[in-house]
Amino acid sequence: MNVVCLDLEGVLVPEIWIAFAKESGIDVLTRTTRDEPDYDKLMKWRIGVLKEHGLKLSDIQNTISKIDPLEGAKEFLDELRELTQVIIVSDTFTQFALPLMKKLGMPAIFCNELVVASDGEITGHRMRCENSKYTTVKALQAMGFDTIAAGDSFNDLGMIKESKAGFLFRSTEQIKRDYPQYEAFESYSDLLAAIKKVL
Q1: How many CB atoms lie within 10 A of CB 5?
Q2: Which residue out of 7, 91, 152, 162 is catalytically annotated?
Q3: How much is the pTM?
Q4: How does the average pLDDT of the chain come out, rounded?
Q5: Share of the chain above pLDDT 70, in %
Q6: What crossing angle do the helices spanning 57-64 and 94-103 adopt, rounded to 10°?
Q7: 7 catalytic residue (yes or no)
Q8: N or C: which end of the chain has fewer CB within 10 A?
């Protein structure tokens, strides 16, 4: 029994923090998991930047409301969901995900949660579990699933490595060079064809 585990940002939708960096004019917020492998460290730093600029959850949610899925992403996801079970395994947060999931046809998503004060200030974040993407595929495997994974960043490598098949999608040149053992794709049609081969 197969389940496909897909990253969200950079694979199905644009990077939320990059979009917010552009809208807010705070260029340093373009830093993502493509640049910083330690997600906890990255999020603590991001929260510090938000506090420094007096920005709240609603400011980020306003940006998210304007984000559309990447071209072809919903069609890819719809076709994939006709073939097999699919879960989006993301390090984003419930407070960010819902409007994006609506635009993608409400697929299943496992993600994390922000800690938000009564005034809307983001004060922290709660991860579902340690090393969340790796831990998720191991748990799915313990339940009898064969996992197939695709992602673009450092934080996707754990689930890619542990799956029966793992792919890089629109990743960086550096990650592709460092991990040549994983097939890398730029188009949804090529990724779908590769997944079909291993289903």
Answers
A1: 27
A2: 7
A3: 0.94
A4: 96
A5: 100
A6: 10
A7: yes
A8: N
